[in-house]
Here is the input.
Amino acid sequence: MRKITVTIIGICLLLTMALSGCGETAGQAGVVNVYNWGEYIDTDVLDIFEEETGIKVNYFEFHSNEELYSLLKMGSSTADVIIPSDYTVARLIAEDMLEEPDFSNIPNYSLIDDRYRNLNYDPQGLYSVAYMVGTVGLIHNSAMITGDFTSWSALFDERYAGQIVMFDNPRDAFGVALMCLGYSQNTTSEAEIREAFDLLTKQKPLVHAYVMNQIFFKLESGEAALGPYYAGDYLSMYEQNNDLIFVHPIDGSNFFVDAMCIPKGAGNKTNAEVFINFMCRTDIALLNMAKIMYASANYEAAAEFADELEPWMFEIMFASDEVLARCEIFTHLPEDILKLYDQLWVELKS
Here is the structure.
């Protein structure tokens, strides 16, 4: 799909053909129900998985961690594998909503970089396997607007009224406002959160749309000119619109880890473990990276892919230590703070 990854894709396809039917996952039967973010996998790997294992993949997409959490909480999903973000993994663990995988069925876990194991959302590493990692940045269309775009404050600038897109979920939206104010994205101070709410309230008349996946298309098409979004998606957007510019704001940013987990009571737990093991494989991780342009937690795949990138792309996809020093991983917040977020978000959107 991408000019910079032709070599990698060719290598991956050769590896895949060589590994198909090799016996690592052959002989399985039944189904596995997978819930993932939109545009967050090379769907060809699902066909490869089915051919190798005989396990049928029923694949579903969700648009936010909050949507996924609600589906699981209400019992409205049949998920065997889910791929939530760090803070949602922590919440699901705290509420006893995840199974512990049998890691003997996931030998490719050994390929996951130590940097993405036993992090604060799953400190003992019992419930999750890191999939992709990345950062959130500020994207603007240089052909549509001019100004200083080194700070999140640009999203609250009246000069860009009607051209701003904003995250349509409380944790990400409040995170942006909190960073702009100089506060931690993980604050439990009601006063700081309410100050962020006031800033978001002032911003509301400037916002073209509150959206999630659609941020990608609105910025890529020029329907909007300014918004927060993910580094990996930016690299995909840039292929279609070279006027888009990405920065890691000086105020700080969110560093995230999206991880594969098995919900409590999953009907196909063994098949879920087979699928997770498959997704950890280096050739499969390379195919997924080439498609979605996020950094894999597989250290072999990440190292091989990094060698294919132009320097400026490398700096966005694999954020430097200097950038990461300004970043925070979202943590699971106390229940009273989550309720405050929900209350203020409803008020903001009403």
Q: What stands out?
A: The mean pLDDT is 92. The two ends are 41 Å apart (CA to CA). The CA atoms of residues 235 and 348 lie 31 Å apart. The longest strand covers residues 129-141.
